[in-house]
Write a structure and sequence with these properties.
Layout lengths: L11 H9 L13 E6 L3 E4 L4 E7 L3 E6 L5 E6 L4 E2 L1 H9 L3 E5 L6 E5 L7 H11 L1 H16 L10 H23 L18 H24 L15 H7 L7 H7 L6 H16 L1 H13 L17 E3 L3 E3 L10
Parallel strand pairs: 1-5, 2-6, 5-7
Antiparallel strand pairs: 2-3, 3-4, 7-8, 9-10
């Protein structure tokens, strides 16, 4: 006679781990994610219930803050930050891009990217990028999005479009400078002399870096390559700069000029930019714009986080199902 089987009682710690483990259906789409989170001088680690940041201050002592990992599109790690491998793995599972940034959130040194669910949009991007005619069409469409449709005449070449873009940005700077009565403004970005720059340049650099982080996360979530740009070229973030330029005149430039009298412009720029992201619904716009650029004939929504098995390439069928034994068909 077999002895009765016993079930090992579940401990509170194991129960918390089970509840904290997300399923694919629980994860939000990139278009529904919150914006970004900038952290510095903290230790980030994974415990039984989630990823948390340990913050220590003289006034409040040590505090533990849990991070909404599955609802963040990207996390910017500033100086003085440490993170454990388990926490990084959780960010990757939740589709959150982790970016190592410099002081004030300016400059991106490295990025830990999540695994994309599919290569559909990477293939469309690569086909458009590798064909000079299609690449030119995408580049012109990017300029059209900045100018407004119908602004650039038919047959306008890239050299003229670049000149038009330079004039547009310069005029925008002059208009905002007059509006805020700050005199003549000249765009300057010098990381070597960061603290000597004026508040507008400081705020603009910080806000642009946050924008780059959001765009970078959206590109990776779609499975595209940030390195294959259409206007910019020769940089691992070429496409990031391409897409970010679509929104600067609307978002980061006016924000920077509004902080011309700030005593802490870079920090205020990050906080203000985060608040405005929901208002402008930026992530859904980024996803839709990228999809429209690479496949303008079809309207798409952001991809759902569903499991996707690897296909096999076929010169006739294009793609055939993977994960099965094709030996019987031989």
């Amino acid at each position: 006679m077999k002895p009765p089987t016993t079930t090992k009682p579940r401990t509170p710690a194991s129960a918390r781990r089970k509840l904290a483990a997300p399923t694919v259906a629980m994860l939000p789409r990139i278009a529904d994610s919150l914006s970004f989170l900038y952290l510095d001088i903290v230790r980030i680690h994974q415990d039984d219930t989630g990823v948390c940041a340990e913050v220590t201050s003289e006034r409040r002592g040590a505090e533990t803050v849990y991070l909404p990992t599955a609802a963040l599109s990207c996390v910017l790690l500033g100086p003085g930050t440490s993170i454990t491998a388990r926490a990084l793995a959780t960010f990757a599972r939740h589709g959150t891009t982790v970016i190592t940034a410099g002081s004030g959130g300016v400059r991106c040194y490295s990025a830990a990217v999540p695994e994309s669910l599919t290569t559909t949009w990477l293939e469309r991007q690569t086909r458009a990028w590798a064909d000079d005619t299609r690449r030119l069409a995408v580049a012109k469409t990017m300029y059209e999005k900045r100018f407004g449709h119908g602004t650039a005449a038919e047959g306008t070449n890239l050299d003229k479009l670049r000149g038009m873009e330079g004039q547009r940005v310069k005029a925008h700077y002059q208009l905002l400078a007059r509006q805020y009565k700050i005199g003549r403004f000249r765009r300057a970005y010098d990381p070597a002399s960061w603290d000597t720059q004026d508040p507008v340049n400081l705020a603009l650099s910080a806000a642009n870096t946050c924008l780059y982080g959001i765009v970078h996360a959206a590109i990776l979530a779609l499975g595209c390559s940030p390195a294959l740009g259409f206007v910019h070229n020769g940089n691992q973030q070429a496409l990031v700069y391409d897409i970010a330029d679509l929104y600067k005149a609307e978002l980061t430039i006016p924000l920077a000029f509004s902080l011309h009298a700030s005593t802490n412009p870079d920090a205020e720029a990050r906080r203000s930019f985060r608040k405005e992201l929901r208002l402008f619904k930026l992530l859904p716009r980024i996803v839709a714009d990228i999809q429209q650029l690479f496949d303008p004939e079809t309207e798409y929504d952001a991809p759902d986080p569903e499991e996707h098995l690897v296909d096999l390439w076929d010169p006739v069928a294009g793609a055939i199902p993977g994960g099965i034994n094709h030996g019987e068909r031989a």
